[in-house]
Amino acid sequence: MALKMVRVSPSILAVDWQNEITLNAVIDQLEHSSASFIHLDVMDGKFVQNKTFDEKMVEYIRNRSTLMMDVHLMVENPEKVIDNYLKAGADILTVHYEACKDIEPVLKRIRSKNVLAGVAISPKTPAYKLKDLLKTGLVDVVLVMGVEPGASAQTFIPGMAEKVAEIREMDKNVIISIDGGVNLKNAKLLRTVGANILVSGSTVFKSKNIRKTIQALRGSWGSKFAKLFKKDED
Ligand code: DX5
Ligand code: ZN
Fold it and tell me: Is there an atom of ligand 1 within 6 Å of 39 CB?
């Protein structure tokens, strides 16, 4: 059996900037953790009420970090802006299923730049809606929202873990990311039902030890291996 690695993608939307922590310091903390990505929530004030940042933020972080850029576009008509994010250095570029009139050309465009194409589904969108799209082979990542898109620190909606399981059942190979309401209590279940990437905002950034929290979200095998190596050294 192959060892399945679960990746953590901390969402900087949850950083409490009032604590006067700088963006560079946050990047540095994540660089020194076992996070694989930095999750960037782009909101346009239309698809969701809040407005956040644009491609300049992605470019800034890209130039200062070795981590992969996991860009989550919560914007209307994403086809109008995807090129900006491709240029800015996204590694995964995710658009919302609900925001696209014609999603296939959008995914093809993303892939043409060797970037992983993601499709996000909001809680009210059932998994079966993706069935035909998954069959096209154009989707690299399915991002299942665990909360309504728009804000950090909401409670995980029951049934979203089952949705992950349903998608895993439909497609054994697609990368599944779960975003919103992920915490140290539900992480194990989410890993078990087939999630590959755990996006986490408040669980990571409200914790005292960001590095340990990220490791805990990834699960026990990281620490089991650490123990094994320790034994060897003894
Ligand atoms: C919500 C965003 C999430 C959010 C996650 O619209 O897509 O990425 O920042 O935050 P937590 O983990 O606090 O729910
Ligand atoms: Zn997100």
Answer: yes
